[in-house]
Amino acid sequence: MFEEKVDLKDIDQQDPEYRDLLSRVLTIQSDCEIGGPHLYVEHILGHAPTKGYEFVVARTAAEEIDHFRKMARMAGDIGTDVSHVLKWGNEKRYVEAFRTKIKTWEDYAVFGFLVDRVGKYQLDEFIGGSYLPLDRAVQTMAPEEEGHIEFGTVESGDLAARGGEWKERVQRSVDYWYVKSLDMFGNSNSWRSERFRFWGLKRRTNAEARAEYIAEVGPLIEKAGLTVPDPLEGRLYL
């Protein structure tokens, strides 16, 4: 296992595989950070239930764009250009969950509840990792991501608590985003996942992170009076 700590000044001395995997991490993370605003700003920002909620959507988008800026800068520092993720359509996103559009308020809330929570899991992988600039950047991003998750969790629960049609709408949204969230962790037997761990770029296997997520989010779904979807139905990556 690789136990060194790498700063930007050390990057040229690193094994080519280390640089390739770091480049991949920064590219995909950049795409996910900018992918969020591209999902919901068009249809949600001007149609949130209240002006206060419009502010929440705008602030969340601004924070995600700033997260992209940080990731893109780190990628550029090691010679990786990620500008293409700003230009292409959602259908080309690296992660399948971002290849759509969010058009309803309940989808926006549940996205924060479930998908942003996966984003926090991904950021946690980098804390204490071998690449110091990434570790430092994530320390500033994680608290903001927690805020997005908290809003989505509370709002999803409040919408479901209305009962009737609203509860049904939130349940449909949970059914959709729960499966997408589980797939975001990737294949359980991914060889690349093991190489990330070898080089200290991630801490957990895909299967370990997914299992922790399932254990965390299941009780939260039930607490909202909703049904936890089948974790295998409709999955792309097992």
Can you give keywords for this protein?
single chain; Ferritin; 238 residues; 8 helices; mainly alpha
Annotate the secondary structure layout:
Elements: H1 16-44, H2 51-77, H3 84-87, H4 105-126, H5 132-161, H6 164-183, H7 191-198, H8 206-223
Largest sheet: none
The amount of helix comes to 55-70%
Multimeric status of the protein: single chain
Structural class assignment? mainly alpha
Q: Gap between N and C termini, in Å?
A: 26 Å
Q: Total domains, how many?
A: 1
Radius of gyration computed on alpha carbons: 18 Å
- What is the CATH C-level name? Mainly Alpha
Strands, count = 0
In DSSP terms, counting alpha (H) and pi (I) runs of 4 or more, how many helices? 8
Fold-level CATH name: Ferritin
Rounded mean pLDDT score: 96
Compressed to H and E, one letter per element, the order equals: HHHHHHHH
Shape from CA axes? globular
Uncertain segments: none
* CATH level-4 homologous superfamily: Ferritin, core subunit, four-helix bundle
CATH architecture: Up-down Bundle
User: What proportion of the residues form beta strands (DSSP E)?
Assistant: under 5%
What does this structure look like?
This protein has helices at 16-44, 51-77, 84-87, 105-126, 132-161, 164-183, 191-198, 206-223. By secondary structure, the protein is an all-alpha fold. The protein has a single domain (10-223), classed as Ferritin (Up-down Bundle). The chain is globular, with a radius of gyration of 18 Å. The model has no long low-confidence stretch (mean pLDDT 96).
